[in-house]
Structure formats: C-alpha cells, structure tokens
Amino acid sequence: AQSVTQPDIHITVSEGASLELRCNYSYGATPYLFWYVQSPGQGLQLLLKYFSGDTLVQGIKGFEAEFKRSQSSFNLRKPSVHWSDAAEYFCAVGARGSQGNLIFGKGTKLSVKP
Amino acid sequence: GAGVSQSPRYKVAKRGQDVALRCDPISGHVSLFWYQQALGQGPEFLTYFQNEAQLDKSGLPSDRFFAERPEGSVSTLKIQRTQQEDSAVYLCASSLIRGEETQYFGPGTRLLVL
Given an 8 Å threshold on Cβ–Cβ distance, is B100 in contact with A32? Predict the structure, then answer.
C-alpha cells in the first residue's frame, strides 16, 4: 500500500539550531514529492518539491530536501531555525502520470525555543 | 494574484444538518481537489475534478458526501445528515492542469458537528 511516514510527531529545537525532519515513503511507482508547511488556522503552503533531476532541492525560507531513492526518503533540512518556523510540516507523495491526488504523512509539529 | 479561497472558514452544525462548503480555485486552474484533515492527521484525498468532470470520488467516505463543479470553476462539497465523525478541516486545492503539478491549497473550512 502507498504510504508516507513521518516518524517524529513533535520536535523542539532551539532558535539558530539546525533542523532535519524525516519523511519515508512507500510507493510502487516513481514518486514526486512535496513538503508543505501549515501554520495554525492556515492552509498548506508549499516549501519545495521534487519531480526529477537534481536530488537536492532548494525551497523557500531557506529549506532544502534531499531525495534518496535507495532509502525511500525525502528529509527536510534547514541550517538555522528561526522562531517563525514553528508550525506543522507535512510530507506528501504523488504518482507520476496520475491525476495528481497526494498522499500525506501525519505531519511533524515543530516548536522553536528562544 | 488571488489564491484559493474557501468559505465559510468555520462552520458549526448540529448532527443531522446538511452543510455546503465552497471553494474558489485559482482562476484558470483546471484541476481541483478536496481533502479532509482530521485533528492531528495529514490531509486525506476525497475527490478530484478536471474542469467540470468529477473523475475520481474514491475518497468520499460515504454517500452522504457529494461534490460538484458545474461550470468548471467554483466547487461545492456538500455533506448531508452530518455526523460527529465528519468534524474535520476540509481543504480545497487547485493546480494548473493536472497530475504532477503543484497543488495550491486554500485556508480550509473547519467543520464542527455537535
């Protein structure tokens, strides 16, 4: 079955520290992958996406993610976290050639300590 | 430019009441998706439209859920005889054409069924 796993429900980091949020997927076809961020009461904002090509993708707000096919992973990283990064982060996967509906992980809530 | 908008933002319904949730996608976007996000969970796919055609409704949880997009732009998700388990945030997303394109999400409608 197709699935996305975000192993960490809640992560707390200090402001200025580095961040890595994990995402693993199980998908029969070659996937394309997204990271979205959701602030309280808000919709989902796209951080970055991977379709093909360079496996290290850059996104907005200083985020990056690396697609590792051998590990079925697409981890999100940021070298220095800001207090405004506190939010919930969702990894999502879609199938190439499909109509486009996405499968989401359950999300990782990020808290930032001053 | 304008993003995806949804209304109402909040809806409180008594069990058994019918509700209608509206989505205005980005102008010119062909594809429209509805997702349901339960508390503490990631969004789950409900249904997909390409223009006015509903091509996939496999995610609709019961026949009480009905969606339409009669003119290929605005969409309405209707829930008949609401139940407590219908309480969730309903997210609408649109993409330019289909498939492997970025989906842009609205702020969602938070439905609470009492």
Answer: yes
